[in-house]
Each structure stands twice: as structure tokens, then as C-alpha cells.
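Whiteboard transcription, Tuesday session. T.W. wrote the C-alpha cells on the left side:
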């Protein structure tokens, strides 16, 4: 093992080099949280009828350069629905 003073210098150098990465990760997490909040609000507005989407035409994204792995955004799948609590479970939690 290197001497303590060298260990301290190594830690300081690593901290200095990773600061910009940590800032970028923090910024991306904030943006992701805002996008998820926007998505939730948009879905709520459509479901409650506050936003009418019956005549909306979607753009052709077939040739667009987008990421196809969107995590839990696979709307063709019901897998995510299995993780949601039943109404009875939610009501029981509210009573506690």
C-alpha cells in the first residue's frame, strides 16, 4: 500500500476528475425526473379528458434516430401493470 500522504493525493485527484461526471449525472437525473413528471401529468390529462387526443396525428418515426430501449415505456406490454397494487391494497394503505 502507498503511504498515507500519497493515498490522500490519489483520493483528491480522483475526486477532482469525477466532479464533472457527478455534475452531469445529477443534471441528467433532474431532467429525467422532470420528463417522468411531465409524462405522468400528460397521461393524467388524457385519461381525465382534460386533453383531447382524438384528432392528433403522430409523426412517422420509422426513419427517426431514436433509442428503442425506453425501459418501462413499452406500452404494448402489460408486464408493468403486474407490479401495480390493486385498489384494495391502496385503500388498505390509506387507512393506516
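and on the right, the sequence the group agreed on:
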Amino acid at each position: 500500500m502507498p503511504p498515507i500522504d500519497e493515498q490522500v493525493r490519489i483520493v483528491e485527484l480522483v475526486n477532482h476528475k469525477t466532479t464533472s461526471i457527478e455534475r452531469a449525472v445529477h443534471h441528467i437525473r433532474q431532467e429525467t425526473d422532470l420528463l417522468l413528471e411531465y409524462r405522468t401529468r400528460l397521461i393524467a390529462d388524457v385519461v381525465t379528458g382534460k386533453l383531447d387526443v382524438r384528432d392528433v396525428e403522430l409523426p412517422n418515426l420509422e426513419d427517426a434516430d431514436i433509442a428503442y430501449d425506453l425501459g418501462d415505456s413499452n406500452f404494448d406490454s402489460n408486464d408493468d401493470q403486474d407490479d401495480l397494487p390493486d385498489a384494495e391494497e391502496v385503500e388498505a394503505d390509506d387507512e393506516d
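Someone added at the bottom: The chain has a mean pLDDT of 80.
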